[in-house]
Write a structure and sequence with these properties.
By secondary structure, the chain is an all-alpha fold. The chain has one domain. It is 82% helix and 0% strand. α1 packs antiparallel against α2 and α3 runs antiparallel to α4. It is flat and about 45 Å long.
């Protein structure tokens, strides 16, 4: 369950970050509310996962999931550009996340 909680925390991090972009500097009500709720919920699920996971592993994976998700959504929904060097760096983050999961001591 700890990995599920961490995944949920990461997905909620993506949710609040995208909602923040859509809130236009907190000037649009619904995305602003989603940002606040998503932020708190993400922290709660991370805290639950941290009861059983090492801090460094969990935090790196949480932020890595957020980086990957927000990067992809930024490209596909907000037409943000991704250079080759940025793509390589995101791929390295994905490799790092996979490595942390594979090497995690349970």
């Amino acid at each position: 369950m700890k990995w599920i909680y961490l995944l949920i925390a990461g997905l909620l991090e993506i949710t609040w970050a995208v909602a923040m972009k859509m809130s236009n500097g907190f000037t649009v009500l619904i995305p602003s509310i989603i940002t606040g709720i998503g932020y708190i919920a993400s922290a709660v699920f991370l805290a639950i996962a941290l009861k059983q996971l090492p801090l460094g592993t969990a935090y790196a994976m949480w932020t890595g999931i957020g980086i990957l998700g927000t990067t992809l959504l930024g490209v596909f929904f907000f037409n943000e550009k991704l250079s080759v060097s940025q793509l390589v760096c995101v791929i390295l983050i994905v490799i790092g996340i996979a490595g942390l999961k594979i090497l995690a001591k349970e």
